[in-house]
Structure formats: structure tokens, C-alpha cells
Amino acid sequence: MRIILLGAPGAGKGTQAQFLMNKYGIPQISTGDMLRAAIKEGSELGVAAKKIMDAGQLVSDELIIGLVKERVAKADCAKGFLLDGFPRTIPQADAMQEAGIKVDHVIEFDVPDDVIVERMSGRRVHPASGRVYHLVYNPPKVAGKDDETGEDLVIRADDVEETVRKRLAIYHEQTELLVGYYRKAAERGETRYHHLDGTQPVERVSQQLISLLG
User: Fold this and answer.
1) 71 an active-site residue?
2) Which residues form the Adenylate kinase active site lid domain (predicted)?
3) 67 a known binding residue?
4) What is the mean pLDDT of residues 64-69?
5) For this structure, is 2 an active site residue?
6) Which of 72, 87, 131, 187 could join 93 via S-S bond, C-beta 3.0 to 4.6 A?
7) Nearest to 67 by CA among 90, 54, 50, 91
């Protein structure tokens, strides 16, 4: 049950990742969390990563792959793991393969850009409690106010339409290439590729995942 989730920001990967973690008892591996943990542990790779980050530079693919390899060898990954947000590029996917990190399923959540923009730019947050509303799908009782406290709701910087569109452009430029990459890998029998319509209700997507993964 070694799984990669692919899809644009706002396509619903995070929600389904939580569902899969609970359902199958496998950990989600995010490169950000992994970097922070390695730095905290003071492992050799962690120390190297800290130096690079302290200098304000980007951590190399090689180092990230080393961390992923170290992480998937831990006991909690015995049943499998979930990679979300990695690999982001073809060189990272190649490096993963060269490092012998095998993947059983690649799941793509396909959602048109305009739907993602509507989903994300419609979100409103109550900063103190973290409660999230949506202008269309889950509106507050009083426009712009939190239901429980009556305090103002805000738009997170990440949810501003211009920011969302910039993030989508980066996804199409860099990460979308992985769709073709893993489709070809599936044709060669190296993994299984699943394409899901991410515009469906959350529960329906979850049900489809169960039937695909068994």
C-alpha cells in the first residue's frame, strides 16, 4: 500500500490522505514534516539540511530522496505509506526509482482550475478557532462573521484568487508532467495508475478509493 497522490493544490488530496491514513493505518509522508523531524533528531541528513536551509537555499533532490529513503525504512511504514506533494518533478521521480523506492498506486485527483479557484477563493476562516467556512458550500449564518463568536472571518493569503492561480500555473508547469510519467510506468507494469474525478462529493471519492485499493 505504497501510494503517491497527484493533483493540483485544492484538488482534495489532503482530505483523502486523512481518510486513507485512518482506513489503512499508514503514515502520510510530507517532505516538510520529514525535514523538520530530521533536523530535530539531528541525523546526518538533518544536519546537512539545516545548514542549507539556514543559508536560505533550497534543499537538493538528492538530500530529499535520502530523507525519504530513511523515512520509509521506519517501522510505521511496514504496511505502506502515503506520499503527498512529492515527487514534484520528473528528476525527483527518477531519483526515487533509482533509490529503489517502489510505489504500488499512483492516484490522480483531477479538478479543473476554475473549480479549484472557486473552492479556495470562497474559503473564509475564523483565525482564533481555525473554523473554516465557504461562501457557497458552507456559508456562515451572518456574512463575514463567525457563527459562534460573531468575530470577523478572514481570507487566508493562500486562498486569494491571484495566489491560487499562481500555484496552479506552477503545478501545470512542473508537476503535471508526472501524470504522463506514471501513466507510462503503469503501462510497463511498474505501478498502478488511477484517475479520479475530484469534483465529486468527498464521500464518493473515498468510496472509489476503497474499491480501487481493496
Assistant:
1) no
2) 123-158
3) no
4) 89
5) no
6) 87
7) 50
User: Omega into 127 within 30° of 0, i.e. cis?
Assistant: no
Give, in order, the Cα–Cα distances in Å from 167 to each of 7, 31, 151, 197, 198. 12, 18, 30, 20, 18
88 is catalytic: yes
* Cell numbers for 58: 533550497
Domain that holds residue 149: 2-213
At 204, is the pLDDT very low, low, confident or very high (cuts 50, 70, 90)?
A: very high
- What average pLDDT does the segment 102-113 reach? 95
Q: Is 156 part of the annotated catalytic residue set?
A: yes
The answer to whether 167 is a known ligand-binding residue is yes
Residue 47 belongs to a domain with what CATH number?
Answer: 3.40.50.300
* Cβ atoms of 108 and 193 closer than 8 Å: yes
pLDDT band for position 198 (50/70/90)?
Answer: very high
The amino acid at 97: Q
18 annotated ligand-binding residue: no
Give pTM, 2 decimals.
0.83
Share of the chain above pLDDT 90, in %: 64
Decide: residue 206, CB within 10 A, 0-12 exposed, 13-18 middle, 19+ buried.
middle
Distances (CA, A) of 70 to 97, 114, 150, 157, 163: 15, 38, 47, 34, 34
